[in-house]
Design goal:
By secondary structure, the chain is α/β, with parallel strands linked by helices. It contains 19 helices and 25 strands. It has a 7-stranded mixed beta sheet with strand order 15-21-20-19-18-16-17, with helices on both faces. Strand 13 and strand 14 form a beta hairpin. Helix 7 packs antiparallel against helix 16, helix 9 packs parallel to helix 10 and helix 17 packs parallel to helix 19. The longest helix has 20 residues. Bound molecules: pyridoxal-5'-phosphate. The site of pyridoxal-5'-phosphate has 14 residues, from helix 9.
């Protein structure tokens, strides 16, 4: 059966009111004309004084057929935000003059057709500037004509946009409707698809227009125009017409996720402490024994530390005013870094705003695409995030298993890479096999990086961490740590060679693009490190407490071992762990339950964290309570 193009156009006083077109088989001409005429006669803009219908036979063989562009709706708050989306779209096409192109839209308001714009020179290429170039001779594919051929902006726009996107040398299209009630417009290209932008003009405005974005030679303009105006196109698979409908609840995913978390007994909430962070705290109006703090040496409450921080507060004020490279570098910052380097026996040190940022910034600046990072499966989240963000290949090896690490090093040869590990693992409290770790890194010419968050101030004869623990016989290339745990303050740090620190200052984004910590915080860390150096008995008291507490629990028949301030007491089931922790809270012991996703599913545990200032009597009472409740709950 032959195909026909049917075009209807209605006007009043020579002004366009409405127009529409279809491509139909010959047996559908009559009903189609009927509907188009009715539509032309009943437009909201008024009754026409002229209505024409033009019926033209087209060669079926000449018809091209395309799949509709995929549609993506971009919800925007107002038309300014909508135009921002257009700007982004234009830039995504590698066009630099987005703002000028958007401004040109206003020149198309009075045109029947579209502007044909050379996107590089901004020359207008349409032969008739008043009329513009029209894309015609296209329709949606349908087997039978729908009974109600309602005007549907959306479907018609997709048909047009799909045809235009396939025109030679057209790289994109911008469109705002001139219908005052229709504020949704679009940007479209073959690459991006059809971006339906919910607001592109204020309601009530008749300012609509269209630009075809052209990139190509002048001699090909005619070919483009002829495709747009004459090439018959049928568009298939138009997505279901989605009327605006009731607005979806854009927050629904939050409710679903939270419910899911609750259903799995993984819901977390904040606990409010109403006192200083020390061995004894006030929580919900009750005095509790703190067995969950990382302030292992109880440094945040040492008088000398507080007094020095207060003095610096008076002298320097509260904030640093800028990043380290701009205004935020004081002599206190530099003194702290000198102290850190001396404390860890390295050439130099650099302070970051948190340990988390130190890991992110250090790993991402040292490693990149094509490099390989070998990472312990139980490494801290900040190491994992740093590895991911670096875009290096990540090879995860079994926890503290140097044989597995060696196997993976052999299997994954690389030109540049790093091995990274916690020194003391934050959930299990066990200690990295540093000598073998460093040997393997050297043997395979990889950087070695160790996170000393839980080893600084805790292990080693004078609390200097993992290097001292192993008798200072070996040291990693990158020694990272935090000031927020046993130093009792805030901030992260990296210790290493002068060259490494110089590199980080110049490359670590987390260092460069963040306001530095206040001199007050630096002063607290500085004085705390001095204090730890001058009072090794504080470290010894912590180490004695660890031995004593583990002994108490072992006497109660619990299989508990640790050389560090982190003492895991395995429970297993997530819900049971929460119940045990709750019972301990009720009994006055502040002790955390650690669950998935912090640890593996089914390996939920109590995580007791000891402090140098816990007394033997307190630790004995805590051990008794823990053993009692575990027995009661049959764990
Ligand atoms: C706490 C911790 C960090 C993060 O340090 P913050 O200073 O708290 O940001 C990094 N690594 C490990 C192993 C940690 O336990």
């Amino acid at each position: 059966m032959s195909l026909y193009s049917i075009k209807m156009r209605a006007s009043a006083a020579k002004k366009h009111i409405s127009g529409s077109e279809k491509i139909v088989p010959s047996n559908q001409i009559a009903p189609c004309v009927d509907q188009l005429v009715r539509r032309g006669m009943s437009h909201s803009k008024g009754e026409p004084d002229q209505l024409s219908v033009k019926i033209t036979k087209i060669e079926e063989a000449s018809v091209l057929s395309f799949d509709a562009l995929p549609v993506r709706t971009v919800e925007v708050d107002d038309h300014h935000a909508g135009l921002d989306e257009i700007r982004k779209f234009i830039r995504s096409l590698n066009i630099s003059r987005a703002d000028e192109i958007i401004a040109l839209l206003s020149e198309t308001y009075a045109m029947r057709g579209a502007m044909l714009l050379d996107v590089d020179t901004l020359e207008r290429l349409e032969p008739d500037r008043e009329r513009g170039v029209r894309a015609t001779c296209m329709d949606a594919q349908r087997t039978i004509l729908p009974p109600e051929m309602e005007k549907n902006h959306f479907a018609e726009a997709i048909v047009l946009a799909t045809k235009v996107a396939h025109a030679p040398n057209i790289i994109g299209e911008l469109c705002i409707s001139d219908d005052p009630e229709y504020v949704t417009g679009y940007a479209a290209s073959l690459e991006t698809g059809y971006l339906r932008i919910t607001k592109l003009k204020p309601r009530g405005s008749e300012n609509g227009g269209r630009i075809f974005l052209y990139r190509g030679g002048r001699q090909e303009v005619d070919k483009t125009i002829s495709f747009l105006q004459e090439q018959p196109v049928i568009v298939k698979n138009i997505p279901p017409l989605s009327p605006p409908g009731p607005p979806r609840d854009k927050f629904a995913f939050l409710d679903e996720a939270l419910q899911n978390i609750r259903d799995n007994h993984l819901y977390r909430s904040l606990k409010t402490i109403q006192s200083a962070q020390s061995a004894n705290v006030r929580y919900q109006g009750k005095d509790m024994l703190m067995l969950a703090s990382n302030d292992y040496l109880d440094m945040s409450c040492v008088d000398e530390v507080k007094a020095y921080a207060a003095q610096i507060l008076q002298q320097y004020g509260t904030g640093s005013g800028g990043s380290r490279l701009i205004t935020g570098n004081t002599d206190i910052h530099e003194r702290l870094e000198e102290k850190l380097a001396a404390f860890k026996h390295t050439e130099a040190a650099l302070v970051f705003n948190t340990g988390y940022v130190a890991n992110l910034a250090t790993i991402t600046s040292l490693m990149g695409k094509g490099d390989v990072i070998f990472s312990d499966e139980l490494n801290h989240a900040s190491i994992i995030d740093g590895c991911r963000l670096s875009r290096a290949d990540i090879v995860v090896y079994k926890h503290n298993d140097m044989d597995d690490l060696e196997r993976k090093l052999r299997e994954n040869p690389c030109a540049k890479g790093m091995i990274v590990s916690d020194a003391v693992f934050s959930m299990d409290g066990d200690i990295l096999n540093l000598p073998r770790f460093v040997r393997l890194a050297d043997q395979y010419h990889l950087l070695s990086m160790v996170d000393e968050a839980h080893s600084t101030g805790v292990i080693g004869r004078t609390g200097r961490g993992i290097v001292e623990y192993y008798g200072s016989t070996c040291a990693p290339d990158v020694l990272m740590g935090t000031l927020s745990k046993s130093v009792g303050s805030e901030g992260g740090f990296v210790c290493g060679s002068r060259k490494l620190i110089e590199y980080l200052i110049n490359r670590a984004r987390g260092f460069i693009f963040s306001t530095s910590l206040s001199p007050v915080t630096m002063a607290a860390s500085l004085k705390a490190l001095e204090y730890i150096e001058e009072h090794p008995e504080r470290v010894h008291a912590l180490q004695e407490n660890i031995r004593f507490f583990c002994g108490c629990l072992q006497q109660k028949g619990l299989d508990v071992h640790s050389e560090t301030a982190i003492i895991p007491i395995l429970v297993g089931d997530e819900q049971k762990a929460v119940e045990v922790s709750q019972a301990l809270f009720d009994a006055g012991f502040f002790i955390s339950a650690i669950r998935y996703p912090t640890v593996e599913k089914g390996s939920a545990r109590l995580r007791a964290a000891l402090m140098a200032t816990h007394t033997r009597a307190q630790l004995q009472a805590a051990a008794d309570a823990i053993a009692g409740i575990l027995r009661e709950k049959e764990i």
